[in-house]
């Protein structure tokens, strides 16, 4: 996958998050920094509504990737950066947003909240990422 294809994939995935949030929960994601707190709620809302189905591998993969793309696109609009496809672990490649010396795996933080610990805040991770890049 070349860089342009990756950028397009992430923009399209972010739009999928916007569309899914509106269709299923009637929640509007507007690509603002303030909207990131809604992602925290939406991830848990999927679990509440769909219970075990929301935690099936394919659903987790999809949710984490579309909401991770959304968070990353909001971040890019505020600080710049470039999506990178990391294959350093061939068994578990992932996409991260690279900004200067930092790299952010937004899909990974969504996974942590959705699967491992509902107390983990996507918004707190985002706010720290913003702080890292606006000092």
Task: Write a structural description.
This protein has 5 helices and 3 strands, in the order H-H-H-E-E-E-H-H. With 135 residues, the chain is mainly alpha-helical. It has a 3-stranded antiparallel beta sheet. Strand 1 and strand 2 form a beta hairpin. Helix 3 packs parallel to helix 5. The longest helix has 23 residues, at 3-25. It is globular, with a radius of gyration of 14 Å. 31% of the residues are buried.
In percent, how helical is the residue content? 55-70%
Main β-sheet description: 3 strands, antiparallel
Q: Helical region count?
A: 5
The end-to-end distance, rounded to whole angstroms, is: 33 Å
Name the shape in a single word: globular
Low-pLDDT runs: none
Strand portion, in percent?
5-15%
Series of secondary-structure elements, N-terminal to C-terminal: HHHEEEHH
How many beta-strand elements? 3
Rg, nearest Å: 14 Å
- What is the arithmetic mean of pLDDT? 93
* Structural class assignment: mainly alpha
Strand order of the largest sheet: 1-2-3
Question: Can you lay out the helices and strands and say which pair or pack?
Answer:
Layout: H1 3-25, H2 36-50, H3 57-79, E1 82-86, E2 94-99, E3 102-104, H4 106-116, H5 122-133
Antiparallel strand pairs: 1-2, 2-3
Summarize the structure.
By secondary structure, the protein is mainly α.
Which descriptors would you attach to this protein?
135 residues, mainly alpha, 3-stranded antiparallel β-sheet, 5 helices
